[in-house]
C-alpha cells in the first residue's frame, strides 16, 4: 500500500472527510482492521485566509508547496490537497512535488465521465465559483460544460 500525503487544514473541518473516506475505502477493499497509510500536514488556515484576502496567491502557493515537500520527506508517495479553493495554487504545489499530485478537478472529471454525465452543477466558495482554476480545468481536460446554480 502506498502512503498518501494529505495537505489539509483549509479548514480542518474539510480535511476530516478525506481522512475518513480514504480509510473507509481501504477497509472496504481489504477488510478486517486495515487502514490507509497516510501522512497529514494541517496548515494554519489563518495564514492561508490572510493570503486569500490580500490576493497574495503566490505566498499561499509557497506555504502549501513547502508543506507538500514536508509530506514527501515524511514518506508520502502522492499528495492530495484537501480543499477545492486552494487548487487555485495547485500548479505551484505540483511544481515542487517529486511525487504525483492528484488535482481535485481531474478526479472529479474522471468520476463525471465514468457516470456518463455531460452537464454538471458546480458549488463552491466565491474563489472557486468566480475563477477558472477548477471549472476551466474540468472543461479543458474533460470537455464538460457546467451550470452555475
From TrEMBL:
Transport recorded as keyword: no
GO molecular function, one term: amino-acid racemase activity
Lineage: Bacteria, Pseudomonadati, Pseudomonadota, Gammaproteobacteria, Enterobacterales
Similarity field: Belongs to the aspartate/glutamate racemases family.
One family name in Pfam for this protein: Asp_Glu_race
PANTHER family: ASPARTATE-GLUTAMATE RACEMASE FAMILY (PTHR21198:SF7), GLUTAMATE RACEMASE (PTHR21198)
Entry keyword set: Isomerase
InterPro entries recorded: Asp/Glu/hydantoin_racemase, Asp/Glu_race, Asp/Glu_racemase_AS_1, Asp_race
Stated name of the protein: Racemase
Native organism: Klebsiella pneumoniae
Amino acid at each position: 500500500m502506498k502512503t498518501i500525503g494529505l495537505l489539509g487544514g483549509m479548514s480542518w473541518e474539510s480535511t476530516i472527510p478525506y481522512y475518513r473516506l480514504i480509510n473507509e475505502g481501504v477497509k472496504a477493499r481489504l477488510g478486517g482492521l486495515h487502514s490507509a497509510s497516510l501522512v497529514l500536514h494541517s496548515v494554519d488556515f489563518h495564514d492561508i485566509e490572510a493570503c486569500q484576502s490580500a490576493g497574495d496567491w503566490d505566498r499561499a502557493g509557497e506555504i502549501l508547496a513547502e508543506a507538500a515537500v514536508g509530506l514527501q520527506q515524511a514518506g508520502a508517495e502522492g499528495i492530495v490537497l484537501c480543499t477545492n479553493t486552494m487548487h487555485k495554487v495547485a500548479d505551484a504545489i505540483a511544481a515542487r512535488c517529486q511525487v504525483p499530485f492528484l488535482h481535485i478537478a481531474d478526479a472529479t472529471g474522471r468520476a463525471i465521465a465514468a457516470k456518463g454525465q455531460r452537464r454538471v452543477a458546480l458549488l463552491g466558495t466565491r474563489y472557486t465559483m468566480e475563477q477558472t482554476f477548477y471549472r476551466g480545468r474540468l472543461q479543458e481536460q474533460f470537455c464538460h460544460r457546467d451550470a452555475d446554480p
